[in-house]
Write a structure and sequence with these properties.
Helices cover 40% and strands 18% of the residues. With 256 residues, it is of the alpha+beta class. This is IclR family transcriptional regulator.
Length: 256
């Protein structure tokens, strides 16, 4: 006759183990790490790592900034004091709220010290963000958020940026040269969304809106697949209303 033993092997859930290995890998990088590096360090196939990273980001345990993954608010709350858990909204929290409310990935970027800086992205498994296959920082001419930021610069700063990051087409739909880009930027109407269709990534359309937060030059953006392009303008109008409301929050403004 057999009896239960305290040394019996417990039932383990593989997906939980894999997610924990990814979290452990994130924890070893103070400034975050990209998906490929985390997959390698956790010993996971890249497709599996991508799926788990998106899920952990959706649940708030991770956040994606500038193409790398860091701990999100849910992970931070695991060790936070109970009294510190109620806090004002930040950019990351707001993007996650808008992603859920609008149903599209949401991006926030600023123009800081002469460069385009993507500071936060909120996406989900069923609404994935655009893969940064070419540096957002160096290809501002080819995506909506970059064009929106460049459109807010004065002529001197815009010319300086383009001297350092020359215009080059990324797809057959991209703006072809510097003169064409400058002409497009000159025709932008103040406060109106900037739309780009497949200029950065084939099969994707994007819209960005300028954000006024003190002296900060900033922009918010969304993206949708080309076959769902009809959602783009309604979604960006909804985002614009949400941003206008939240900009009344001092904490949100300074966190940009």
């Amino acid at each position: 006759m057999t009896t239960a033993s305290s040394t019996a092997v417990p039932t383990l859930i593989g997906s939980v183990q894999r997610a924990l290995r990814l979290l452990e890998a994130v924890g070893t990088h103070r400034d975050g790490a990209p998906a490929k590096q985390l997959a390698r360090e956790a010993g996971l196939p890249l497709p599996t790592a991508y799926h788990l990273l998106r899920t952990l980001t959706h649940e708030g345990y991770l956040r994606r900034e500038n193409g790398v993954f860091l701990f999100g608010s849910a992970a931070e709350n695991l060790t936070a004091a109970q009294g510190a858990r109620s806090r004002p909204a930040t950019v990351t929290d707001s993007l996650a709220h808008w992603r859920d409310a609008i149903g599209v990935p949401v991006y926030c970027a600023v123009y800081r010290e002469g460069e385009i800086e993507l500071i936060a992205v909120a996406d989900a498994p069923d609404a994935p963000a655009v893969d940064e296959w070419a540096s957002f920082r160096e290809t501002g001419h080819a995506h909506a958020i970059g064009q929106c930021l460049l459109g807010q610069l004065d002529e001197k700063d815009r010319e300086d940026h383009l001297d350092r990051h020359p215009v080059r087409p990324l797809t057959r739909y991209s703006v072809r040269d510097r003169a064409a880009l400058l002409e497009r930027l000159r025709t932008l109407r103040r406060g109106e969304p900037v739309i780009e269709r497949q200029e950065y990534a084939l099969g994707t359309v994007c819209a960005a809106i300028p954000v006024t937060a003190g002296a900060t030059i900033a922009a918010m953006a969304i993206s949708v697949p080309l076959d769902r392009e009809e959602r783009l303008l309604p979604a960006v109008e909804q985002l614009r209303g949400e941003v206008a409301s939240l900009l009344r929050s001092f904490v949100f403004s300074i966190s940009i």
